[in-house]
Amino acid sequence: MLGNARARLCRLTAEQLPGAIRRGAVLVDIRPQAQRAVEGEIPGALVVERNVLEWRCDPTSDARLPHAVDDDVEWVIICSEGYTSSLAAAALQDLGLRRATDVVGGFRALVDAGVLNDA
Length: 119
What we know:
Blueprint: H1 2-7, H2 17-22, E1 26-29, H3 33-39, E2 46-47, H4 53-57, E3 75-78, H5 84-94, E4 101-102, H6 106-113
Parallel strand pairs: 1-2, 1-3, 3-4
């Protein structure tokens, strides 16, 4: 399942994330609140827990986020290690959000690469 999900994503490395943000990508942190409290926040990221992600990002949903304007939004999903985020990004692609992706290694890769220090 994970391999199939990742096969259709154009996954980003931690070092590529700042460029994606500059071009207008929407960064979404799907880690549970308790995990964010322990690991830390991601500056500039929307917090949308995994169990509500699809209807918050779907532009046809009454519960959509203001960023969910159309199917062409670039959603970059972040979890702790890059596993849950791959499955979540694939689920968004299943909704027609073709540019949904995630970051290889997730939050931990961002920390290791020092990307959050520059945010």
